[in-house]
Design brief:
Order of helices and strands: HHEHEHHHHEEHHHHEHEH
Number of strands: 6
CATH class of the largest domain: Mainly Alpha
CATH superfamily of the largest domain: NCX, central ion-binding region
CATH architecture of the largest domain: Up-down Bundle
Oligomer: single chain
Shape: globular
Number of helices: 13
Strand order of the largest sheet: 1-6
Helix content: over 70%
Number of domains: 2
């Protein structure tokens, strides 16, 4: 259940905000192209790699048909809406509600068919994977140190690179600690906790700038003198932060729900900021290199948002759990499509309601739909025909399918603009 809710939300947050920002800026081709290309990447390239590495292995028939079937129906529905050239608000809401229905089916199957223990086994296996990887890294360090002068030099250079990367991370980590509350009582820090109280309201006010300008004049203390809204908020939050720093000297004994909620909201805020800057960088890169946005959407943005799925699923397959890795290749992209793109479409259609939001036809988007549907239908037919035993040859076919999709999409984007 957690895999299709909280875990999917954590992995899909970049895609959600990338889609929202893209559609808000009128770059619907970038939003559609990134979601569809990322879906094709995971359902073809990642599934193919898992199959090549771990096949043959057996998948759970009910869960596999459920995940692939729902993803296939969602893709077909979105393809139909796109070909119609317009989308109404009820259709956009339907995408979001379809995922809610999917979560309900998963919940019902977990309770009714006694699959709840599999979630616990999954979590324990991932923890075991972390311990196994940590042990292998430790053994690798000991081997490299003892293998002679040449390898020691390479190892020392490697450690130097790691130290340099950590030095780059320090200012970012410091900024995040200032603005994202620490939920673990053992990691509590009075300075950072007070800084959270001072800065979080100001950042949330900045996030709501489209609803109320941060420099909106407010009559504060003196009736004839107006202060900007951000100054009033900063003054109030700083006063509370100073009071907190003086009074609170001991960490909390347990995790506090308000702190967890604020930490989640602030994490989403930073993901939104990064997603917006990512799209701005892509637009600037396209102008500099004279590349159409569709190329950047189906390559850089799609790969960047999906490389985590590739690393995680392949690592789980290497740990001896290919069935778990295969299951993670469909629920995540479906969440990105239905919740990420769906929520973005809900916002856009709500702005023009009761009129329809216009979707302009482009052959590149249609190509992404076709290859995504081919990969899903092919996997469903081939694995079902093989009695839910994944064959290795199908992994090579899926990787080849994605290579063809990338080549065709790049050619179309280059010549169609």
């Amino acid at each position: 259940m957690a895999a299709v809710t909280l875990l999917a939300l954590g992995n899909g947050s970049p895609d959600i905000f990338s889609s929202v920002v893209a559609l808000r800026n009128g770059q619907y081709r970038t939003g559609f192209g990134a979601i569809l290309s990322a879906g094709a990447f995971v359902s073809a390239f990642v599934v193919g790699f898992v199959a090549i590495y771990a096949a043959p292995f057996t998948v759970d028939a009910g869960c596999f048909v459920r995940d692939v079937g729902f993803y296939l129906v969602a893709a077909l529905f979105l393809f139909y809406v796109y070909l119609s050239g317009e989308i109404f608000v009820w259709q956009a809401v339907g995408f979001v509600m379809f995922y809610v229905f999917f979560v309900g089916i998963v919940f019902w199957m977990d309770l009714g068919m006694n699959r709840g223990e599999k979630k616990v086994d999954k979590e324990m296996s991932i923890r075991g994977l972390d311990c196994e990887i940590g042990g292998e890294v430790k053994d690798l360090e000991e081997i490299k140190i003892n293998e002679g002068f040449g390898f020691a030099q390479v190892y020392n250079k490697f450690l130097t690179c790691i130290q340099v990367s950590k030095a780059w991370e320090l200012p970012i980590t410091f900024l995040l600690k200032l603005t994202i509350p620490e939920t673990d009582p053992s990691e509590w820090n009075r300075f950072y906790s007070s800084a959270n109280i001072a800065l979080c309201p100001l950042l949330l006010l900045y996030a709501c700038n489209s609803f109320m300008p941060i420099d909106h004049p407010i009559a504060f203390l003196l009736p004839n003198i107006h202060f900007p809204l951000w100054f009033v908020v900063l003054l109030a939050s700083t006063s509370l932060a100073l009071l907190h720093f003086i009074v609170e000297t001991e960490p909390p004994k347990t995790e506090q729900l308000p702190v967890v909620v604020i930490a989640f909201i602030m994490s989403v805020f930073w993901i939104s900021i990064v997603a917006g800057e990512l799209l701005n960088c892509l637009a600037a890169l396209g102008i500099i290199l004279e590349l159409p946005p569709a190329i950047l959407g189906l390559t850089v943005l799609a790969w960047g948002n999906s490389v985590g799925d590739l690393v995680a699923d392949v690592a789980v397959a290497k740990a001896g759990h290919p069935t778990m890795a295969m299951a993670g290749c469909f629920a995540g992209p479906m969440f990105n499509m239905l919740i990420g793109l769906g929520s973005a479409l809900v916002m856009q259609t709500a702005n023009v309601h009761p009129e329809a939001y216009q979707l302009h036809f482009h052959i590149g988007i249609v190509t992404a739909f076709v290859f995504l549907l081919l990969s899903l239908m092919g996997s469903l037919l081939v694995i079902t025909w093989s009695r839910f035993r994944v064959p290795r040859f199908w992994g090579f076919c899926l990787v080849g399918l994605y290579v063809v999709f990338t080549a065709v999409s790049l050619i179309i984007a280059k010549f169609s603009g």
